[in-house]
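To: structure subgroup
Subject: Chain for Friday's discussion

All,

I'm putting the inputs and outputs inline so they're searchable in the archive.
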Amino acid sequence: MERVKSFEKRKRRFRKEWLYCWIAVSLPIIGYIIFNAVPVVISLASMFTDIHHNQIGTMTWNNFAHFKTFFHDSKYWFSLGITLWLTCAQFVSLLVALIVATLLSAKVMGSKVFQTVFFVPYICATVALSIMWNWMFASGSNGVLNSLFGTQIDFRNSADWLTWCIFIVIAWSAPGYGIVMFTAAFVGVDKNLYEAAEIDGAGKITQYFKITLPQIAPMMVFLALAGWQAGFATFDAAKIMAPVTWTGEAGVKDMGLTVAYYSYIKGVSFSHMDYASVINWVTAAINFAGAFVFLRLRKRTEDNLE
């Protein structure tokens, strides 16, 4: 009995291997605390203070002055409208991805090649794609579209066209991920359901709308949620297509101003990180509210499959 107890004590002694394990585990945690948790705490505290030139040491209580300014800030609500409109580009790309994935699932020759080709724009850097589309939309003979159609439209300096330019960049680059995910979802549909439908006399179109779409509904809602999140994070394309002017406008008449871009302009360009924190936290709350709706909808679609 004593030997067993002494063995257990020896077994519980600290070993050198444990030290290496703790170091390996703690490094990501320390990195998260320094680069994520600490900035979040500072951002939360800065909403209630004035900070001069983004110097943390100058933080002073401002009696909720930023919140009073925010609710009368028409520019933010305008940027929110632009953001919601550009988020629709994510849903358009989702519809395109569904159509393309449906065609590719028909096992046509070269479907794998097409799937890879469609995925390329998604993995390319948004900045690079935006620069490419800048050439496409350039004015005069320098623009590819104007050269092709013989027009002289100044797309990027037109209030009627600028938002549409950013919309096209997003809608063109986003479908690749959805195509891959939808193709995988099609493979996972139970083939017995199709066989039973054929016995009942259901055609291919009926099977698609009555079996395929309901079966992949959770994937559709998941991709819609991802599109919602990506829409609120729209920044790179807006910054490249609508560079900020010396007056702080994001392109002509602020038609390229998204909430993420507006936060950048306030916090970085004009050194008002305290007010930018208010913008970010309110936007996060709106984003979370939309995400909550999508999560509940996904839960409902999963319950319908059981």
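Points worth raising on Friday:
Residues 73-305 form a domain with the MetI-like fold fold (CATH 1.10.3720.10).
The longest strand covers residues 49-50.

D.
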